[in-house]
């Protein structure tokens, strides 16, 4: 009986150890692969004006308090696919910052930036030279994280014009539930701001509590890769359209009615 217990103990410890080391290796391997892809990829160059060119770029915003958690793991998979298709990427972690909510002062309507000088203004600046956006958030009580919410409210209020007509997609990570509601919450920001929404083969979600869990979510990771390739395809199509002389749609003077008058 004692020998049996000992054997079970060693067996269980062995499994736990190999799980951890395997996942850690996978995680490191992921980051190495990403770096290699960045170094070797044939980047897509675009003409900004007569004299300037730059590489096509997607910003990926991580709204999780965990810098290298589940949301990050999902975003890395999207970034890898984008990189493989020649699109430069930058993952920006805002979820660990203390980002206050919008004070509705309206000063940004004149200035184009927020009176609170924090990552919101940094991202508005970066958005000027970005071609697409992926916003990733963990599910917190069936919605996006509090920090992501305050970040997005202020980013879109102050920096809407820097994102308009550029493709966007949301990505969510949850242990179990609340993913569709949270994804919907992210999509609302794109659809009020003239942004084409990029889709995948399924809704953009991964499952897990730890990055190791997400690495085991094979379907979730495939959804992320498809999302990355779809975004790259749309970005290239938009660029080809511009070269062929297709301009942005003309906008009408803005109507703002409410339900009172
Ligand atoms: C405050 C809080 C609320 C959460 N609410 C939910 C929830 O409603 N549904 C769910 O499935 N998981 C919930 N979770 C678990 C996280 O969504 C899940 O662990 C996620 O994958 C973590 O991603 P991250 O590592 O990028 O932070 C919650 C976690 C926290 C900290």
Describe it.
With 261 residues, the chain is of the alpha/beta class. It has a domain at 57-118 and 127-243: 3-Layer(aba) Sandwich (Rossmann fold). It has 8 helices and 8 strands. It has helices at residues 2-40, 70-84, 108-111, 119-127, 146-163, 179-191, 211-216, 218-243, and strands at 45-47, 53-55, 57-62, 88-93, 132-140, 143-144, 168-174, 205-207. Strands 3, 4, 5, 6, 7 and 8 form a 6-stranded mixed β-sheet that branches. Strands 1-2 form a two-stranded antiparallel sheet. Helix 4 (119-127) packs parallel to helix 5. The longest helix is centred in the N-terminal third of the chain and has 39 residues, at 2-40. It is globular. Mean pLDDT is 89; it is low at 13-30. Flavin mononucleotide binds at residues 64, 66, 69-71, 138-142, 173-178, 208-209. Residues 64, 66, 69-71, 138-142, 173-178, 208-209 line the site of flavin mononucleotide.
Bound molecules: flavin mononucleotide
Strand content: 5-15%
CATH class descriptor name of one domain: Alpha Beta
Rg over CA atoms, rounded to whole Å, is 21 Å
How many beta-strand elements?
A: 8
What is the CATH homology-level superfamily of one domain?
A: Flavodoxin domain
């Amino acid at each position: 009986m004692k020998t049996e217990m000992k054997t079970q103990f060693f067996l269980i410890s062995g499994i736990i150890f190999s799980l951890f080391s395997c996942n850690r290796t996978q995680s490191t391997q992921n980051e190495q692969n990403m770096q290699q892809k960045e170094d070797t990829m044939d980047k897509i160059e675009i003409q900004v004006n007569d004299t300037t060119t730059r590489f096509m770029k997607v910003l990926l915003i991580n709204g999780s308090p965990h810098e290298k958690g589940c949301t990050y793991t999902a975003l890395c998979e999207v970034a890898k696919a984008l990189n493989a298709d020649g699109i430069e990427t930058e993952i920006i972690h805002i979820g660990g910052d203390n980002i206050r909510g919008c004070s509705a002062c309206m000063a940004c309507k004149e200035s184009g930036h927020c009176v609170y000088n924090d990552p919101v203004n940094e991202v508005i600046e970066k958005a000027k030279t970005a071609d697409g956006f992926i916003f990733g958030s963990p599910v917190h009580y069936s919605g996006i994280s509090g920090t992501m919410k305050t970040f997005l409210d202020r980013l879109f209020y102050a920096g809407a014009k820097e994102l308009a007509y550029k493709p966007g997609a949301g990505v969510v990570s949850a242990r179990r539930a609340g993913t569709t509601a949270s994804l919907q919450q992210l999509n609302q920001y794109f659809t009020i701001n003239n942004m084409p929404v990029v889709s995948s083969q399924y809704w953009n979600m991964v499952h897990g509590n730890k990055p190791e869990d997400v690495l085991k979510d094979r379907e979730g990771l495939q959804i992320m890769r498809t999302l990355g390739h779809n975004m790259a395809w749309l970005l290239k199509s938009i660029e080809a359209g511009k070269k062929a002389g297709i301009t942005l749609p003309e906008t009408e003077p803005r109507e703002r009615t409410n339900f009172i008058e």
